[in-house]
Design brief:
Structural class: alpha/beta
Order of helices and strands: HEEHEEEEHEEEH
Number of strands: 9
Helix content: 10-25%
Strand order of the largest sheet: 1-2-5-4-3
Strand content: 15-25%
Number of helices: 4
Largest sheet: 5 strands, mixed
Radius of gyration: 25 Å
Length: about 210
């Protein structure tokens, strides 16, 4: 355990008042839990306080737990070059309740929040330009949610007759199977190569002449 992370955790638990919730020192970073209404004060404190100086927002990521009432864990990864330590600020949210945009604290949050909105559907209030950044503007759904179908809803191709890109419903080449995440091959009655095993069992394999 990095002693600097332990010391910082103890400092934050006493000096920061009610800005932070649970604080968990780990091997490589300090994990700090916050609520939606304390996110921006907490990020500002971590950026400006002389014992912290987390001046760089490295990334914003999300973990999806569909069974939870607040299914998303939003994770802000911070770096302090001055103190050579890292921190992860975490909060939970659901599909419908927005969380405040961190663009007022870190300019780097702009595109990171657009990516989170695009791929997970987490909405950031007061974002200056919250629109899709990786998928097409007409894309339906949020493809990194765990309940998003692997095939998607539509497929894209270039139509030679119409001379433009067209969107069409996904046309599966086999009957759609509902996965239970335990037996992915359930429903497969015949696998490529099974006929060879049957031929060998029946003694119908290739034989050399003579």
């Amino acid at each position: 355990m990095n002693p600097a992370l332990t010391d910082l955790g103890e400092y934050l638990s006493t000096a920061a008042g009610t800005k932070f919730g649970r604080i968990e020192p780990c091997e490589d970073a300090l994990t700090i839990w916050v609520e939606r209404d304390t996110l921006l004060p907490a990020l500002s404190f971590l950026r400006d306080n002389q014992n912290c100086l987390f001046k760089q927002l490295m990334d914003i990521t999300v973990v999806d737990y569909p069974a939870r009432p607040e299914r998303f864990e939003v994770v802000y990864s911070l770096l302090s070059l001055k103190h050579n330590i890292r921190a992860r600020v975490k909060l939970t949210c659901d599909e419908d309740t927005p969380i405040p945009s961190a663009t007022a604290v870190f300019n780097a949050a702009n595109w990171a929040e657009r990516e989170v909105w695009d791929l997970f559907g987490v909405f950031f209030s007061d974002h200056p330009d919250l629109r899709r950044i990786l998928t097409d503007y007409g894309f339906e759904g949020h493809p990194l949610r765990k309940d998003f179908p692997l095939t998607g809803y539509v497929e894209v191709r270039y139509d030679e007759e119409r001379k433009r890109v067209v969107y069409e419903p996904v046309n599966l080449v086999q009957e759609f199977r509902t996965f239970d995440f335990v037996s992915p091959w359930e429903g497969m009655l015949h696998l490529p190569g099974d006929e060879k095993a049957g031929d060998a069992a029946n003694g119908d394999g290739n034989k050399s002449d003579g």
